[in-house]
Amino acid sequence: MDDLSDDAIYAGAHLPLVHFFRLHLPTDVRHRLMTGATDPADHHNFERWNRYFRSKDPAMTAHAANELLPRLERVRFEPYWLVPETAPGQETGSPFDQQSSRNVGRMCDFIAENFLFDIDCVNIAAAADIHPKYAMSLFKKSTGMTLNEYVNLLRLSYAQALLMHQDANVLGVAMDSGFGTLSAFNKSFRKLAGMSPSDFRRGVTGAR
């Protein structure tokens, strides 16, 4: 964000990759979405909506919601307008692009179902019936992250949810989240959250 003032806000939406790649979007559309392309008016609109919500005025809040929700709904459709028109009989998107999206989708499906277990690139590639080296290259090119980074992201998200319970034990959470060792869990967690799992747990539960 360019605005680093105390009252700055960040607005975003999260769609798990496993669902994103099920959409089988054309390559250019997928790239624009993953790199944060937005409507030029969004910057001013979000500032205005933020003022409405911060006013605590029920009428203003309702007005902001009535404008914001349709804008979010349009995100679902607007990317398709970016696809150039094709001549009659010409297919949109190459078979390679469609197959690549299907392969990444299969990998994401497998990871979502098995990230709590001991899996590696060989297992993940097998789920898409492709070579492990090609799987790693395709996933990195399509998502901007490695297979290992994505697996760790799901594990860490799961771990954060467990740590929100007051009786959570850090070692137990590490094991339950699919990390083989406590040191690997601590290192990955600190890299993602900027703090240790213990500090995160104290911050959200008040536990000592």
What does this structure look like?
The protein is an all-alpha fold and 208 residues long. Among the domains are: 17-82, no CATH class; 150-205, Orthogonal Bundle (Arc Repressor Mutant, subunit A), CATH 1.10.10. The protein has eleven helices and no strands. α6 packs across α7.
- The proportion of residues forming helix, as a percent range, comes to 55-70%
Got a strand count?
A: 0
Report Rg. 21 Å
Structural class: mainly alpha
SSE string, helices as H and strands as E? HHHHHHHHHHH
Instruction: Provide mean pLDDT, rounded.
Output: 76
Shape estimate: flat
CA-to-CA gap between the ends?
A: 34 Å
Summarize the biggest pleated sheet. Answer: none
Low-confidence stretches: 79-93
Q: Which strand-content bin applies to the residues?
A: under 5%
Please give a handful of descriptors for the protein shown:
single chain; 208 residues; Arc Repressor Mutant, subunit A; 11 helices; mainly alpha; flat
